[in-house]
Each structure stands twice: as structure tokens, then as C-alpha cells.
Design goal:
This protein has 244 residues and is of the alpha+beta class. It folds into two domains: 93 residues, MutM-like, N-terminal (N-terminal domain of MutM-like DNA repair proteins); 126 residues, Helicase, Ruva Protein, domain 3. 23% of the residues lie in helices and 21% in strands. It is globular, with a radius of gyration of 20 Å. It binds a DNA duplex (12 and 12 nucleotides) through helix 5.
DNA sequence: ACCTCCCTGGCC
DNA sequence: GGCCAGGGAGGT
């Protein structure tokens, strides 16, 4: 999981005997700030988890990175698929990291409709693809993209530049309410149980999903069958009857 | 806009 | 055994 660290030895060297001074998050990147201007970056990928346990206790399977604290606890990064990654960066590395080019956080710092309209203006790509583009808006993944589009009653294939001002406002409103609902429910634990809350509980947003993973089931809004299309190599679940 | 790759695991 | 999976980088 430290494969993106330019000098692999830097990961431990930059953390050992250093104090944690704060935490942060932008989009899907987690930040643990370390004394000496070091940023410990964590991205969970598709199957990663951050856990805390007691030193000496049995660790979960697929625990790849362990950082022992001075209070008897240890931070564990667990990731069966290892699409996640972590690194300890110096300020100049943070400045050039890909996440530093990401757009505003979709939850804490959503753009004004006019700002998003400017950036979508001439884009011909489907709006679904651009919702997943972290350089436009950071933090939305496949589930929340599909759920947001359903709430906004927008078809995922719509060319982004052709959205009207009203539709962009609807989309931003839908993103906000979808992310709020997702967080309130503790996130989305799917059947694979890959994502769990830090204390091991499941997130319950799966019970509120309108379209994601519901291929063939009736749309909760209009009853038409939900379909699954592939857009940019990712599954897209949507209702062709009430999303236009 | 497409492709491959990074990995493991569950399901059909 | 093939397909699918909450993500993203890199190449053409």
C-alpha cells in the first residue's frame, strides 16, 4: 500500500517518534498531520479500512500497514484488494500530488451552480462520468453518483455541457442531500462487507439506495424497471422512465 | 474515449 | 472458470 511513496523507506522514517497534530479530509483522501510538516495520506480505494486496535491483539486479515502509537493502540490499514494506498509526504510532495489538483470537496465545499456551470460548459462527456471526475468535484464515487442523478431526475448519459442552469441546481441539491443521507446512515456496506464503520458496524445506506445495484427492480419513484448501463467502464444504474 | 493494470474474493 | 466489484493512474 505504500507503493506510491517515492522512497519506500520514507514512510516509516517520516512517522516514527513524531506526534500527530491534526487530521483532515478532502474528497476521498484522508490526512493525518504530523509534526514537522509531514502529511500522512490515506486513500482507501475500493476495499480499504482504517482501524484501531490494541498492540498485541490479533489483527484483521489483509492488514498491510500498522502504525503503533505510544498509548498502547495501533492504527491499522486493512485492504484485501490493495487498491488503496498511503504515503507520508513532505510539503513539496503534497503540492505536486494528484489530489492537490482535485476540485472542491463535494460535501463540505460544494461549488455554486454558476461555478459548476462554467466548468461543465462545453463538456460533451456524460454527466455521470464527470461526477466521478475528482478534479471537478472531489469525493463522489459510483454509488453516490448514481443516487444523486436519480434524485436529480437526470439521465447519466446526458452530455454535461447541455445541462440547463436549473438542472445543475437540481444536481447540486441532489448531491448535497444524497451525501447527507449517506453519512447519516453511516455509509453503504454492500454484500461484500468491504466497507465497515471503524467500530466494525455496517453502514445502513444500502436500505435507502434507490437505484444502485437494483438492476431490474422497480424504481421507487415511478415503478419502471431500473436498468444497468456501462458508462466509461463503470456500472450505471438508473431509471429511464423518470430520469431525463 | 477507450484500454490496461493494480489485487483479492464472492457469486453464478 | 468467468464475471463482477465503492477507485484511479497511465498510456494510446
Amino acid at each position: 500500500m505504500v507503493r506510491k511513496q517515492e522512497q519506500p523507506g520514507d514512510f516509516a522514517a517520516r512517522l516514527v517518534e513524531r506526534r500527530i497534530v491534526g487530521t483532515g479530509r478532502h474528497g476521498k483522501h484522508l490526512f493525518i498531520h504530523i509534526v514537522g510538516d509531514v502529511t500522512w495520506v490515506i486513500h482507501l480505494g475500493m476495499s480499504g479500512r482504517v482501524g484501531v486496535g490494541r498492540v498485541g491483539d490479533v489483527r484483521p486479515p489483509h492488514t498491510h500497514v500498522v502504525v503503533v502509537l505510544d498509548d498502547g493502540n495501533e492504527i491499522r490499514l486493512t485492504d484485501p484488494r490493495t487498491f488503496g494506498h498511503t504515503e507520508a509526504l513532505a510539503p513539496e510532495e503534497v503540492a505536486t500530488a494528484s489530489f492537490s489538483a482535485h476540485g472542491p470537496d463535494a460535501y463540505t465545499d460544494p461549488p455554486a451552480p454558476s461555478a459548476l456551470a462554467d466548468r461543465l460548459g462545453h463538456r460533451t462527456a456524460p454527466i455521470k462520468a464527470l461526477l466521478l471526475d475528482q478534479t471537478l468535484l472531489a469525493g463522489i464515487g459510483n454509488i453516490y453518483a448514481d443516487e444523486s442523478l436519480h434524485r436529480a431526475r437526470l439521465a447519466p448519459h446526458r452530455p454535461a455541457g447541455a445541462l440547463t442552469r436549473g438542472e445543475i441546481e437540481r444536481l447540486l441539491e441532489a448531491v448535497a442531500t444524497t451525501l447527507e443521507a449517506g453519512l447519516r446512515a453511516g455509509g453503504t456496506t454492500l454484500a461484500d462487507m468491504a466497507y465497515l464503520l471503524p467500530d466494525g458496524r455496517s453502514g445502513e445506506f444500502i436500505t435507502e439506495l434507490a437505484v444502485y445495484g437494483r438492476d431490474g427492480e422497480p424504481c421507487p419513484r415511478c415503478g419502471a424497471p431500473i436498468r444497468r448501463d456501462v458508462i466509461r467502464q463503470r456500472s450505471s444504474f438508473w431509471c429511464a422512465s423518470c430520469q431525463h
